[in-house]
Design a protein that fits this description.
246 residues; alpha/beta; Rossmann fold; five-stranded mixed sheet; three-stranded mixed sheet; 5 helices; 12 strands
Length: 246
Amino acid sequence: MTEFPLSFWFEKEGFDVSYISQIDVHENGPTLLRSKVYLSVGHDEYLTEECYQNIVKARDAGVNLAFLGGNAVSGRVELLTGTDGRPNRGMRYTGYESGNFDDIDLLGAKSYGVGLADWVCTAPDHWAYEGTGMKKGDVVPQLVGWEYHGPPLAENHKDLVVLAEGPVTNYNGVPNQRKRTYATTIYTAPKGNYVFNAATCWWNKVMSAPPGYINPPYINHFKEGDARIQRITKNILDRMISVQIK
């Protein structure tokens, strides 16, 4: 259900969108070069080594990346041949942070498990906030969850901007004992393209409220879309689509 509100919003806004699976990304990385923006939506926790490398190659070739989710690029898996000999019919988990994954470099922040929080504006003068009317400290209630991204942030991306941040609690509402924080970030890749990290699995929950929409358990603020998050998403995608690659 994390993809449904975003897809519904895309149709409403008239974006030209194609849909692919992670197996497509695994098998045919050059396909990503046909698009201006690659979107990772909801909860892309498990990737093959090939998936990860193909996404990095797309970024380095000038494709914009938007991680509209949380806990992405965290666990490594391998795809297995089926009993009938067909490739990529099964999956085997090989461990968190194994292989050559670098979630911090790719996302701009580190991938984490459970953490809940309000989403708090920290950089209202950034172009991503244009037209939202948001001020520093303004809140989108309960937007951060079920899982998230946060510090340590990528030090090698010198222009990385933290658009929102704050402390997280666990699912019982108790402050996280490790005192972690979430961080929504954006940075510019070497070709002049952008990488946006929403830092929450629930980003798309407020993009629209389509028929059949279901709220997460115990969450009361997602019954309708949030115009501010919709505008931020549109600002980012419009800028990504229009950017001139070096």
